[in-house]
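Hello again, I could really use a second opinion on something today. I've been staring at a protein lately and its backbone has me curious. Can you walk me through what the tokens say about the fold? Take your time with it, there's no hurry, and the full record follows here:
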Amino acid sequence: MHAAFFLLLGASLARFLLRHPGEDRTPWIIALSVTLAALYLLGPVLGSRPTPRRLAWLAVLVAVWMVLVVLAPSFAWCAVPLFYTGLRLLPPRAALALVALLTVFVVAAQLRLAHGFDPNLVLAPPAVAAIATAVFVHMQRQAVHQRELIDDLLRTRRELAATERREGTLAERQRLSMEIHDTLAQGLSSQQMLLQAADRTWDADQATARRHVRTATGIAERNLAEARRFVHDLAPADLAEGGGLEAALHALAARETAQAQGVLTVRCHVEGTPHAALPDRVQSALLRIAQGALANVREHADATEAALTLTHLDDRTVLDIADNGRGFTPPAPAALRPAAGVRGHGLPAIRARLHQLGGTLTIESAPGEGTVVSAAVPLPAPAPSPSSEEPS
């Protein structure tokens, strides 16, 4: 439609210059044509919503076109793209009134060019306007229908994902309860029975009592090994695969980008190197914080880009999660105090994890300006290297 407008405008100007060379109104026609083209180019810059600036632009655009039509009727056919501009921007009744006004100008211009009454020139422009309006209304309805279908599909996908997460959580809880019952609980029960038996027989048969204690000790060692296996299994999967926190964050960014299917792109950057390997609980907490923050970006921010930046400093490690989403007004620190039993991916859960590590959470955001969540975890100072010479 934009190409058609400039094609019709150029053809109308060329027709006027060829048929009316050297007339006094020629400079005005050229100036108004350039003004009309510049105004039309300005339209996309102002956005697509019917704001006051956008409505004023449309009024000036139509006014300049009307002056051109009065001076040179051949510019009347530029009205067809203006039909769609008005239909797209104005409410239905106002858009139809604008289409009717433009059609009247087109009919009057064609009759001036014909130098007489011609029924075809009177009927053809309204027919073209009616067809253009009908096509636009049909396309608009189709677009609304397609948006509704897409929204339904996205909502269904979210519901299926939530159902799968719930089912996975319940299955994992059941598996862990069975594992704990069959290992730790049974072992603790056996230890209790053996220690009670040792207590009863300690005075009468110390050898038997010591044997019970040794058996209970062996069961405790096995239970300790099982407990360590549970802890390892419950650690984040990306860390359990090896490669450290950096590799886990890169894997998380790639996975979030793939799952978003082009809606969200997540990048990961690492700056600096740690003076020592980060403790496992620090790595696990930072990875969980990144997962929670990206979950908030995915669900609430309506962002197209996000970045994970892990910075290793001498005394702390900082993880920044930034996005270009809609932003928000950050809550007061009191609203983010860690609560007992806090769960989920929200900001209180992130602050709770940092609170356990003695870290701090900083949130920088404003409506329409994106968000930066910064998690800083202090690190122990590096041990001083031994001097090569003994002090005198």
Summary: The longest helix spans residues 119-201. Confidence is low (pLDDT under 50) at residues 338-345, 387-392.
